[in-house]
Amino acid sequence: MSLRFEEIDWRPTRLGDISLRRRRHPASGDDVYEVKLGDEFLMSSLFTEGEVALARLGLAGTVGGDLEVAVGGLGLGYTARAALDDARVRSLIVVEALEEVIDWHRRGLVPLGATLSSDPRCRMVNGDFFAMAGDPQGLDSREPGRRFHAILLDIDHSPRHVLNSSHAALYQPAGLRALAGRLHAGGVFALWSNDPPDRQFGSALAQVFAEHEADVVTFNNPLQGGTATNTVYLAKKDPASLSQPRHRTVRDRQAGLPFSQ
After folding, report:
1. Helices (H), 26-124
2. Is residue 167 assigned to a domain?
């Protein structure tokens, strides 16, 4: 049986002190892994439904096989693992700003670390996703200008609540256009948010992408009781056959239809 509470790792980084902690859930007895940056909780293994939905909904909007996928933000690895669960994924690159987080996975300090590190389709890259998205070299230094069928982003709390002020530009039309340039025609950009759907951000997506929607993902909240929600934004780049934008309204993922293909 694990300790009731354990700080597995703590390190100073350029973004602040980061720590990986493990505690035992008092009701279930399961180990809960948590990541903190300074005083902010970045992620908990107790709440992963939104991160998994990010990958599943994003990839559901893609067409065909041999998918090349990029993930912005490694965290505890749940988005990356959900993407690899799709047999159509040929390659996955995960861009993570903190080498320390990548090291946790390579050393097997987090539950999904060994799974991601041993999958030949998966490559974890230390880099600033936001700077790379706007750089002509793109998201993969091994293949400058590389394009992807899907880009899945889970770094900031929301388009308004960013971890670093330098991230804010990506959520504006100019930043989204640069990001869309990293997608194949018909490719999908998917974004996780901890906030309710944001109409202003939806307007920014509408200026860049042929289709967009905001899906509300509902899940149980064992800490406070009842349910909680995340938002997954989905935006599709204009394929050659699409001439007119089609934009859809917010819907609850539990009741809605799949993102159109």
Report:
1. 49-60, 78-84, 99-106, 113-118
2. yes
| CA distance readout (Å), 199 to 24, 145, 157 | 39, 31, 16
* Residue 4 forms part of a structural domain: no
Q: What is the residue range of 93's domain?
A: 47-252
Q: Are strands 16-24 and 5-13 parallel, antiparallel or unpaired?
A: antiparallel
pLDDT above 60 (res 24): yes
CB 185, CB 220: distance < 8 Å: no
pTM: 0.89
Round to whole Å and give the CA distance between 42 and 46: 12
Strand partners, 220: 227
Long-range contacts of 5-14 (CB under 8 A, 24+ apart): 8/104, 8/109, 9/100, 9/104, 9/109, 11/100, 13/98, 13/100
> Tokens 């989204």 map to which residue?
176
| Cα-based angle 35, 108, 57 (whole degrees, multiple of 5) | 60
Position 15 confidence tier, pLDDT thresholds 50, 70, 90: confident
Residue with tokens 């948010």: 193
The pairing of beta strand 122-126 with beta strand 89-96: parallel
Residue 41: in which H helix or E strand, if any?
A: strand 40-44
- Confidence class for position 26, pLDDT limits 50, 70, 90: low
What CATH number is associated with residue 225?
3.40.50.150
Do the strands 183-193 and 148-153 form a parallel or antiparallel pair, or are they unpaired? parallel
Q: Is residue 116 within 8 Å of 81, Cβ to Cβ?
A: yes
Domain count across the chain:
1
pLDDT tens profile 45-97: 888 999 999 999 999 999 999 999 999 999 999 999 999 999 999 999 999 99
